[in-house]
Amino acid sequence: MSEAPRPKRRFRQRTVIPGFGLTLGYTLTCLGVIVLLPLATLVAKAAGLGPAGIWAVATDPRVASALRVSFGVSLLAALTASIFGGIVAWVLTRYDFPGRKLADAVVDLPFALPTAVAGIALASLYAPNGAVGSQLAKIGIEAAYTPVGIFIAMVFIGLPFAVRTVQPLIAEIDKEVEEASAILGASRIATLTRVVLPPLIPAVLTGFALAFARGVGEYGSIIFIAGNLPYVSEIAPLLIVIKLSEFDYEGASAIAVIMLAISFVTLLAINLIQAWSRRRFGYV
């Protein structure tokens, strides 16, 4: 007996709402023009230096120091924002208290606030003669014009990402599951680590990635509080601006490509960990 012919796989399944071809073309055009074309132009501009020239830029002591500050502080700030953002999201979602809606709205202020305004406000607050900076100076901590100030600014702009990505999932966790865990004799720590945290891990990683990406590319809110001292508190985006002001377009493009490559590898690693956590804990 001959086997029945297998049905051909169709690239596109019929849907109730038409317009697949038009919307796919629109999507590919937008991605190509808005995302891929500028990145390709950037890489092409940096390619004028050649591999040896790009390596020379990457190994320049000042550039290497700026990259360490940008990426190192961004990782630390994203981690801090993820931890405290999760706590803030839990409080805003699970507890009802006076001013909760106001506090929930304040979380979004870094989204709406112009970065320069945020930078000036942070610099004024944490400067040696500022309200907070003067108190920190008494215990030997200098915040403004140091990497500590960069860290504070990056946590400020990254916190909303950490809160908003976790908050919807916290709202979906059924309280009865926690009560069942307590009835079965689990301690609070066991309930937290085995019942509450597993479904939140993918969202926490997403918030971490968003906060990290925002911190790496941030400029306006950092330059006012960083001090911009070479080898101390100079960030890579500022170095790109300096290169552009010196008409060194290839050098600026090379630094940008290096940042792009490091960011891509870092975000790829975060996404792989996120995919593993989804398979491991069974949540999407």
UniProtKB/TrEMBL annotation:
Subcellular compartments: Cell membrane
Transmembrane segments: 20-40, 71-93, 105-127, 139-163, 195-213, 219-242, 254-276
Predominant location: membrane
Record-linked SUPFAM superfamilies: MetI-like
UniProt topology in membrane: Multi-pass membrane protein
Keyword terms, alphabetized: Membrane, Sulfate transport, Transmembrane, Transmembrane helix, Transport
Segments forming domain ABC transmembrane type-1: 67-270
Family: Belongs to the binding-protein-dependent transport system permease family. CysTW subfamily.
PANTHER family the UniProt entry points to: SULFATE TRANSPORT SYSTEM PERMEASE PROTEIN, SULFATE TRANSPORT SYSTEM PERMEASE PROTEIN CYST
Record text on subunit structure and interactions: The complex is composed of two ATP-binding proteins (CysA), two transmembrane proteins (CysT and CysW) and a solute-binding protein (CysP).
Task performed by this protein: Part of the ABC transporter complex CysAWTP (TC 3.A.1.6.1) involved in sulfate/thiosulfate import. Probably responsible for the translocation of the substrate across the membrane.
Name by which UniProt lists this protein: Sulfate transport system permease protein CysT
Species the sequence originates in: Methylorubrum suomiense
Lineage of source species: Bacteria, Pseudomonadati, Pseudomonadota, Alphaproteobacteria, Hyphomicrobiales
Gene giving rise to this polypeptide: cysT
